[in-house]
Amino acid sequence: MKLKKSKENLRAQLPYKRTQRVGEQIQEILGEIAIKYIDLSLFGFVTFTGVDLSPDFHLAKVYFSVYQPKKEITEIERDLNRLTKAFKKYMGPELHIKNTPDLQFIFDESRVYSEKIEKVLKSITSKKENDR
Q1: Which listed site, 22, 101, 108, 131, has its alpha carbon 20 to 30 Å from 93?
Q2: SS3 for 28?
Q3: Handedness of CA 65, 69, 72, 75 (dihedral sign)
Q4: What distance in Å separates the CA atoms of residue 93 and residue 7, rounded to the nearest whole number?
Q5: Strand partners, 60
């Protein structure tokens, strides 16, 4: 009985799940691959903003953003998803887990959303300053 409680306490003390730790490792490895092996400059400045890894480690949803895109975002997303085999080839030896997860690249809209919110907030503050 005490053993069970101590395991629960140990889990509660862990900073975060293994899927999160491996997801962060995948994000770091993908960034290095993009610098060393796969040229992504034809899309603009691509950054990987996060990775959601499935509990069984078979699928990694990789979120990305693009600064100064040179193509439409949908085209960039499609082209990145065509490069998944190349990314997996270089990621496999670096990632020390049994199976290399399949990759799915998804555009991270949070930056676009935050820019819209920032514009709205600036317009509100500028209206308040003009009313004074």
Answers
A1: 108
A2: helix
A3: negative
A4: 33
A5: 53, 103
Query: What CATH number does the domain containing 36 carry?
Result: 3.30.300.20
CA 14 to chain centre: 22
102-107 β-sheet, strand order = 45-53, 59-67, 102-107
* Angle at the Cα of 13 from the Cα atoms of 8 and 15, rounded to 5 degrees: 130
Tallying the residues shown for the chain, one arrives at 132
Query: What residues make up the domain containing 89?
Result: 2-131
Residue 76: what pLDDT? Answer: 94
pTM beyond 0.85, yes or no:
no
- Domains of the chain: total: 1
Q: How far apart are CA 64 and CA 41, in angstroms?
A: 14
